[in-house]
Every structure is written in C-alpha cells, then in structure tokens.
Amino acid sequence: MRCKDEKKTVLDEIINYYIESHDFNGLPVYNMEHYDCNILCELIDEGLIEVLSEREVINPHIKGFDFTIPINQQKENISKKTNYSVLYPTRKALESIPLDYTKPYSVLMQKGEKQFKIIFFNIEILERYVNNPKFVIMDCGYRGNIYVKDEYIDDKTIDNEYIKNYGMAYIDGKHLERAMGVFVCDLAKLSSQKQMLWKGFELPHQKICKINSGFVDNLINGNWVNEIWIFHALIEEMIVINEQCESIGIPKLFNRTFGTGFSEMPEGFRNILMPTLKNYYDFVLVLEKVIVHNISYKTFQKNAPCMQSIDRKDESGKNKGSLLMLDEWLNKNIQTQENLTDLIVEPLRNIRKIRQKPAHELISNEYDVTLHQKQFDLVNDTYTAIRALRLFFTNHPLAKEVKVPEHLVSGNGIVNH
Length: 417
Prior knowledge:
Elements: H1 2-20, E1 27-28, H2 37-45, E2 49-53, H3 71-77, E3 85-89, H4 104-110, E4 118-122, H5 124-130, E5 135-139, E6 143-148, E7 163-171, E8 178-183, H6 184-187, H7 192-199, E9 209-211, H8 213-220, E10 228-229, H9 230-248, H10 277-292, H11 322-333, H12 340-360, H13 371-394, H14 406-410, E11 414-415
Parallel strand pairs: 10-11
Antiparallel strand pairs: 1-3, 2-3, 4-8, 5-6, 6-7, 7-8, 7-9
C-alpha cells in the first residue's frame, strides 16, 4: 500500500506541475520533490509518464511533438536526479483530469496534445485584427504575428490578446484558397472568451489544410527562410530603379519608395484575406497608388547619355498620362526584340483598368474564392513588368555600378504566398 501511495505521490507531482505551469511544461528531474528512480521506471513501464532529455531535443521543457523514445533510454535519462531530463504525464495519465471546456485549446493541452500541433482557421479570423486599429499585424507572407498596440494594452475588452505566430495555410481544392494555422500552445494562452471566439472560426476539415513550408522550416526546424516575399521584392526593385535613374542622371522614376519592414510597408500591400470583391478592389487601389500613380513624368523629360527625352504634351497640347509617356519613352530609348508595351506597360495599364470599375460604378460586394488566384496573377504580372524595367536600366553604361541584391539578379527564391 505504501508503494502504491508513493507512486501516486510521484505521478501527481508530475501531473500537477504540467497542468499548473504557464506553458504546460514538463517537470525537470532535478527539481522533483519526490524523486524515486524505481517508481519513475515503473510509471514509464505503465505508460503513465514519458521522459525527454537534451539528448533527444534542444529544449526538453516543452513537448512540441509526439516522440517514440525507447523505454530503456528514458529510464537511463532519469537514472540520476542531476540528469538534465524532463518528465511529462502521458495522455493515459491525464484521462481523469478535470477539464475547463470554456477553454477548448487549453483542454487539448490538458489532455496531453503536442504543443506544436497546428490548428487551421478560416482566414476571416485574421480580418478581425487587420480591420481593428487596436492591433498590429506583422505580416511577412508565409507567417506573421498579432499583438496589441501599446496604448491599448490595458483595454480589458482585449484580454491581452496575442498570437505569437500564425502561418499562411492553404485548403486543398480546385482553386487557390488561403487559411491560417496557429500552434495550439499559443491558442491555449488566450482567455476563455477569445478561445471560444477562435473556436468559431476553426475549419471543420483540418486534414485538407496545409501550412506554408516556410512556417515549418523557420519555426519548427529552426532554419532560416531564404525565400523573398514578392511584395518585398517589388519594393526592392523600385528602390534599385530609382538608384539607377540617379546614376544615369535623370529624375527618379518613382516619386516615393517604401521599406520592407512591417511598419514601412504601404497599408494593404499584402495578400488579400477573405476573397471578396471589396478586398480585391481595395488591394488594386493600393497597388495602383504604389506603382502606377507613383510614376514621375519628370523622368521622361530630361536628356542623358544614351537617353532621349520626350515631350510632356501631345499634338493637341494636352498633357500625356504617365503610362503613355512610359510607353513612348521606352520604345524610343531601348532597342530590343521584346515587345516593351506588352512586357512592361500593359500589365500596369491592367492595374488602372481594374481600378476604373469601382471608381466609376456602384459595385455589390461578393464572395468569390477565385479572387485569391486573380490577385496572385496580378501581383506576378506586376512584378514581372517592374523587374523587366530594372533589367533594361541595368544595361545602361552609367547604371553598371548600382548594386542589385543577388536575389533580384537571379530571380530565384522570390515567392508569392
């Protein structure tokens, strides 16, 4: 009887530590109050505890995944109290634990779920934060995070709502359809109210969702992600083009350039979330302002070595539009077998053409999953046009010294998530 009571005492210590710790951590052997190697070995044999050590994982204090560690190795890891090993109750040991079902994601952890299990949600949940000025969304395409602005940190309605990491995800199907994935350990830190809110957006068919590979490489495998988000690459191309213009001796092509830091990016210059007409047209408006409306007609009005200017006015005395001037200027100054109008100008005209519809018509908002693909293609076409423009500038003798990032030169690793 004494042995049974002692075994219960040891197991309860491990279970209580796991349940009561902030992040559902395991109990380090060296911190045990009731350490007994023989009892621990029995608990391992009975499938009630498992042991992680620095031999198996970098950080044994969290159980990120389900592991299959040989029993003999687990026993060896707890053979001395001084070993750097950590104890976890198994799902079997946690079966009788009282559960708080107002916290559905905490419940998963209380049942012994691995911390890095990814739960997939309708992308609509992210719009709640994007459209709320109390929050900041740090979005880099394949992943991001959500946190409260400093001035609203004490707002009780927010409950310190914070998602450390979310990943861009995709739903298998005929069309490109985005979702988002979040680690269950991050969800478990939300308040009851917010966990229930997120639960309402959880996708019913989890198995047909796939997380972006960069999210896994970066946050699970601990590798650097060397791919460049196409939105960042587009901004970098514009910066290089302006530097090339300066080097050639003509005014900068773009009146304004931007940075790739989350606070430096133009608002709305990212993948649309919910595929609605409103979101799509709002994005096209941003893209038009960033690229097309941003083109300076002054660039085309100054002569430089190997560069001839063109008139601002047409034959009737009216000012030409920037895209018309760009078309005329390119075809006057660049000798190539490429059709410059089709390659560079038409994709930019297409942005303006799409923008004209909501500008001149009353549009009813609609949900259309194909808009994800339409935006995807629009951004790719725009990038191809701007990159081609930068490549033509690169051939100018006075632009040879302008440094171009290697990923822009090769074009490898530039991705549209």
